[in-house]
Write a structure and sequence with these properties.
By secondary structure, the protein is an all-alpha fold. It has helices at 2-17, 22-37, 41-44, 50-58, 64-88, 116-141, 151-166, 176-190, 194-197, 199-229. The relative contact order is 0.18.
């Protein structure tokens, strides 16, 4: 909960005040992960993302009970982070870093019109970026390869990487909790319901990407093990 609170308060805060400066925002999200990985990572693993927790559940590194509590903590942390961010901005809850389909994917940039291709494009972008991000996490934290001490830097770098591309398409979610918290507070207190109306994308696509990463990593490492045994 603490980790996801910090992610939303700091990284979404940077996105808001910098008017979504691509480099600043990407670095903000990446550096928060580095800071949290080396502070709370030894306590909880520093998932702070339901897509990551789902991947770990699929890989049997989390029980169902732990997975559900992780997701609950992540959603609560993100929501509280968005609330506090809005409060320090003089109770302005209209813009808190909620995800929306960006002009690059809109059918009409002037009117903001969306069509089926807009939604499909956003879903695919989020799925692929989450797949890349979670695959990096699984690989660097795999105890078989003894790279754990480097995990925070690799994961932070991976999150920075996917933000550099994704910000122009979806604002980059790759994290259902990070998207849900700001969207909920914006809708309840800022009356901007755009992020909440598109929330299904920012929930389903990252979860699908995380699950796919877990399955693919299991497949490719099992194939490698077969080759080594032969």
């Amino acid at each position: 909960m603490i980790g996801t609170f910090v992610l939303v308060f700091v990284a979404c805060g940077i996105a808001v005040w910098s008017n979504v400066d691509i480099v600043a925002t990407a670095l903000g999200f990446g550096l928060v992960i580095v800071a949290m990985a080396y502070s709370i990572g030894n306590v909880s693993g520093c998932h702070i993302n339901p897509a990551v927790s789902l991947a770990m559940f699929i890989r049997k590194q989390l029980t169902l009970k732990d997975f559900l509590f992780y997701v609950l903590a992540q959603v609560l942390g993100a929501t509280f982070g968005a609330l506090v961010l809005g409060l320090v901005m003089r109770a302005d809850f209209t813009s808190l870093g909620g995800n929306t389909i960006q002009p690059l994917l809109q059918a009409n940039v002037v009117t903001g019109e969306l069509d089926a291709q807009s939604y499909i494009g956003a879903f695919v972008v989020e799925l692929v970026l989450t797949f890349i991000f979670v695959l990096a996490i699984i690989g660097v934290t795999d105890k078989k390869h003894h790279e754990g001490h480097q995990a925070g830097l690799v994961i932070g770098g991976a999150l920075t990487l996917v933000h550099l591309l994704g910000l122009g398409f979806t604002g980059t979610s790759v994290n259902p909790a990070r998207s849900f918290g700001p969207a909920l507070i914006q809708a309840l207190l800022g009356q901007d319901t755009t992020s909440l109306s598109q929330i299904w994308i920012w929930i389903l696509a990252p979860l699908a990407g995380g699950a796919l990463a877990a399955l693919v990593y299991g497949l490719i490492t099992s194939k490698k093990a077969e080759v080594v045994e032969k």
